[in-house]
Amino acid sequence: MGVTGPPGPVMDRDEVDRALARLGAEHEAIETSLLALQDHAGRRLLEGAELTGTTKERWIAADAQITLLWAYFDAYSGALRQAREIRARRRWSSREDLVELTELLRGTSVTVAGSASAMANAPTLTGTKLSEQYSLSELVDRMNELYATSLDMVVAADAVWSALPARIDLLSAELQRTRQLAHSVGVRPGEHPSGDDLERITRTLTRLREQVVSDPLAFWVSAGGSSAPGGGRPDTSRYDREARALEEVRREIDAVLTVRQDAEARLVKLRDVLSRADRTLAEARSARGEVLAKIAASEVPAVSGPPTALQEQLATAAEYRRHAQWHRLSPLLESLEQKAEDELLRARESLTAVTAPLAVRAELRGRLDAYKAKVARHGLAEDPLLVERYDAARRMLWSAPCDLRVAEQAVLRYQRAAAELLSPSGERSVPQDRRGEWS
After folding, report:
1. Residues 185, 214: one domain?
2. Can you give the pLDDT at residue 225?
3. pTM check: above 0.85
4. Boundary of a domain, candidates 131, 155, 179
């Protein structure tokens, strides 16, 4: 919509003709805009919808504004028609005609009579008078203001209706498919948290759609600083939150489905891991008896029994599988898999701790034999002192029970004697015990 020129002195014929041409083009543009507003899908939906809240309040005002728009346009059309009739009286308009045309085209000569209801519903734009006088330029300003306000409301409502209900319907369809899938694997309200979540999402989406349809402007975020009609975007935060919640439930359902597909393989693997843990603990118990018989003066940790609680849970998991209780089997399998790995690690650590004295004895035996081989390479194997100290250390290491502290000292004495004989300058080279005291 455009704006007419300002009032001024008496117009000549050329000015009148130019003004009429400009007003004619403006009239056509205004009429096109009003017809487009009248036929706008959003306006038709607003006209037939059962509105509530903010949208109801604003539509009452906007509907009144649209009524006023047409009243203003009719007055504008009448003034333009009257001006054209005056100009058509004579080819060369008289001064009286020009004075009348100047007043009509530039003066406050257009009377607009508005309905009482329209005036009451749009008081900020129209005041309280049932009729008012305008110049054509003032009338266009009024129409511009009413048109922008009405179109903004219509476009915003239409944008929300175009965006959200369809998306909610698609999400509801996905929700229904997920509910059916959840039911097939035993995920039901009151029995599984995801079943409760599906019920909550269903209720929320139902309420959300009702609210969007009846009060679309409650879901509209205006663009800050924008004066263009419809400047803003639909607020999809509530929809997005429910979509994310449904996606989380779907992932949970997929996990349950995965359990249904590979439950047997996972149960077999669990049994294998627990069996390995049992065998390792049995080996640790056997090794502990050997250590207590062969190693003296040594602290040997106790070995726990088999994990009966895990075996009971494993039996429960197998029962869940037999009765197709996949939603219960899923979390139980995840917990059991972690516990079984922890149990196997604990069994291995127990075996390592129990056999540590045997490892120390093996290390001392290896060290003793390594030094014997070294002195033999230097032709000192028959040295009486070395033979005596080697035999003493060997008797201690190959006797049962073996006192590791005494045996270690015997090995160190043999090492010192060998180091003294192997030193090129005859200096004493005393090997250091890298492990410290055995306790």
Report:
1. yes
2. 58
3. no
4. 155
